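The protein record passed on below.

***
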Amino acid sequence: MNHARAERAALCDLLDRLGPDAPTLCEGWDTADLAAHLVLREHRPDAAGGIAIKPLAGYTAAVQRRLKERGFAELVAQVRQGPPRFSPYGLLPGLDAAANTLEFFVHHEDVRRAEPGWRPRELPADLQELFWRRLSAGARLLLRRSPVGVVLRHPDGRKIGGRRAEPHVIVTGEPAELLLFVFGRQDHAEVSFEGDPAAVERLRGASLGL
């Protein structure tokens, strides 16, 4: 089982356990909203554009609301089954792992870390390295709205330039924690900061991610 499938299965197990009304880190969404989003993303390509393109967001939100009306158990079962066989995810080898590893990891943590008493998981070394590679490729995009410069630093000292500006802040953490940080989960990522305190506060409160 690849990491995308493992995160998908673990998230679905957690959703089944918590039910439709549990909180998530996605502003305004409970677990039922999140399950509907995941179904929409894989099964309704006609409506998925609004996830990233603001002019299409109204249609996407309307479709997501209709999906939510199907019932939580059905939605989670559909997410658990994986993408449709004849979707791009099913037809193109490797696309599921490439596109869904980060998606399901972040949303799994969106549910885990909205619960009291959460702690970071011990993740496989190869998954942490995958996250580091993805950060190397995407940090500038994900940090484009940062009001200050950002450097991401691995605990072993490796660095990624996320945004060039002054003042700048160095954010240090395991790749999984840095990933959550740049995807806009700053308050729930276990990272440390070096830099001017005012710049750190501006970064912590910024709207980051896609």
Summary: The mean pLDDT is 91. The two ends are 28 Å apart (CA to CA).
